[in-house]
Design a protein that fits this description.
Structural class: mainly alpha
CATH class of the largest domain: Mainly Alpha
Number of strands: 3
Strand order of the largest sheet: 1-3-2
Strand content: 5-15%
Number of helices: 6
CATH superfamily of the largest domain: Winged helix-like DNA-binding domain superfamily/Winged helix DNA-binding domain
Order of helices and strands: HHEHHEEHH
Distance between the termini: 36 Å
CATH architecture of the largest domain: Orthogonal Bundle
Shape: elongated
Number of domains: 2
Radius of gyration: 23 Å
CATH topology of the largest domain: Arc Repressor Mutant, subunit A
Largest sheet: 3 strands, antiparallel
Length: 164
């Protein structure tokens, strides 16, 4: 590869790595994706490790994360037994998949906490004083608002998925 092209490639990889770090994402995941995104052909784990100066094991672990996001896919290369990968070029698809996955995970967590709080309150209701029973009403109202927001967010995810 021409030196200037290689310089541009590493500049892009470095920038994407820095950008991902600012969002709290794994730098190596971003570097792998950036390398594959700019590549004109599928690359093996060995080639990726060599270009990024990282162990093949690290590449293997982090490429699995990219596969979960739908950001890369394994491809077959005739005459080779190695694993090769290429990037999904539709960035909107990748970002929407990642965001949807993160939001869905948080919605499940919120639902679990709400259910647990409601269960605790219901199991102790008979033992509560009148003052505490009034507090329970406030809890129920406020937890219901969060549940309503969770339902709205879930609906928005469904609509957004259909639009994309």
């Amino acid at each position: 590869m021409n030196d200037k092209l290689e310089t541009a490639q590493y500049k892009f990889i470095g920038y994407l790595s820095k950008l991902s770090d600012s969002f709290g994402l794994n730098k190596l995941v971003a570097q792998i994706y950036a390398l594959l995104y700019l590549s004109d052909k599928a690359l093996s784990l060995d080639e990726i490790a060599e270009k990024l100066k990282v162990s093949k094991g690290s590449i293997s672990v982090n490429i699995r994360e990219l596969e979960k996001w739908g950001a890369v896919k394994s491809v077959w290369v005739k005459g080779s037994r190695k694993d090769y990968y290429e990037a999904e070029l539709d960035l909107k698809k990748i970002i929407s998949n990642k965001l949807r996955s993160a939001v869905e995970k948080r919605l499940v967590e919120v639902g679990g906490v709400i259910d647990e709080c409601n269960s605790i309150v219901k199991s102790s209701y008979k033992e509560l004083s009148e003052e505490d029973k009034n507090i329970v009403k406030i809890y129920e109202e406020r937890l219901q608002k969060i549940e309503d927001l969770k339902t709205l967010a879930s609906s928005m995810l469904i609509v957004a998925g259909k639009l994309l």
